[in-house]
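Researcher: Hi, I'm a grad student and pretty new to this. My advisor asked me to get structures for two proteins we've been looking at. I'm not sure of the right format, so I'll just paste the first sequence and hope you can take it from there.
Model: That works fine. Here's the first sequence with its structure tokens right after it:
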Amino acid sequence: MARWRSLRASSALIGGLFAVSVVIAQYDPTLQYQSRGDRAEGLKTIPVGGLDVELLSVRIDTGQPEPPSGPGASRPWADTLRARFFLPESATVYLTVRQLRSRSTYYWLDYPEPADRPLALKVGVNDYGWPTQTVLQRLQNVRLEDLGAVMRVGRPGPALRERVLPVDLTDGTPALSANRYRFSLKTNGRANVTADVYSKDRKIYTRPANWEQAGSPITVLWDAQFCAGSPCLEGWYRLVLSGYFENNTPVSKEVEFYHRPRLGPTGGPR
């Protein structure tokens, strides 16, 4: 019994210290979301309202768990975090990297800053890297696998229908191929949601209907190795969410994304 009480006391102490570290980070002005040259980065408070269905992330999934970062993990953050993506045609793009789950605040990055600043991109594999020392290394509760990334095409903010480029988000070895994608979305109310992937007008994948909780990330994994028994060809595909909220309001969201099976060398901005 004495040992159990000691363990409970130790757990309470650790929890208290963690809460204190979160509060300190939350009110440290140097960590608040602000302009940092070419990007805006820092901690944001959770917004109220927004779209019924919000796209949080479209990341290239390597199929392997990300090496943990942060205190007590096997390794710390590398000096630079990179977002790599394939640009199939000339276009204006906007990157958002954000913490998928949070407490009262969460990590957020927008690039470029300001949003109307032109980017020197070329058709092909581009990447953008930023230092982790400024914010990420100072957040004890954020790891690489906690982050989502969206590279929007043509507009900086969310919309009912969006066109995006999947992102290889890494602070280590970059992905050489893109055979699986991890989509993260959330609804603003409890909803019964079905996810389908289309190649043009042909449905090639269905994630069966499931009840999703308001505000909790919905994860959809799509394996691009299977399109009618063979790997999917390069091109534009669509992720479509459908279903209904508890009040019978329909769920509707469409994300058009570009599948590039093989990623070549980077040739864009650093």
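Researcher: Oh nice, that was easy. Here's the second one.
Model: And its structure:
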Amino acid sequence: MRKCRIQLSFNSNLSDFYAVIGSIPQSDNIIIEAGTPLIKKLGIDVVSTIRQYWSGKICADIKIIDGAVDEVIMAKNAGATSVTAMGSTTKETLTLFVETCKKNNIESIIDMMNVQNPMKVLWKNNVIPNTVFIHRGRDEENSFGKIIQYKEIAKIKGKWELQIGAAGGIDSREFQSAIFNNADIVVVNIVSPGSPWKGIVFDRNFESSLDHFLQFVK
């Protein structure tokens, strides 16, 4: 099976991060994500905290919707190597977002959550980021019929040379589906026992569960 990169997302608290970071091997194929809920709780400095423990790539999932210049620079200064903006925002914001990322040597990710036609967004706004995320929203994960729109991957890659990420309720089976459908990055949540969200559960079996995912990226 084709290899890709895995993005491990921490959303709840830093305690989980501290507990498991020693079990995550340093690798160019592993990205640590400071998830949106975590940044909202603790601020952008949480990225700086993660940087103290992780020398590789870090994504600041701040989902920029406005004020792109200041927020990109904020993420960069905190130690992030990639940052997200929403595909549903304005042309002006997306243009500034991509331009500011290029100037500051940080990877741009446009998150297409709740966007019906991701390819049209790129074409209409004339913006080409480093990465596009095809994303099923967290609140949609357990809704019947709400699937990750993998068909968009082939459409976008047929037009532009950029990376495609898949996110939104990724478990072991969905992870393999994402790879099969040519996703370059797959976002997997680190979740606490009893969480309603899908991902790798932080419990006594965490290391073996993590290894099951990492076999596709080693």
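Researcher: Is there anything I should tell my advisor about the second?
Model: You could mention this: The mean pLDDT is 93.
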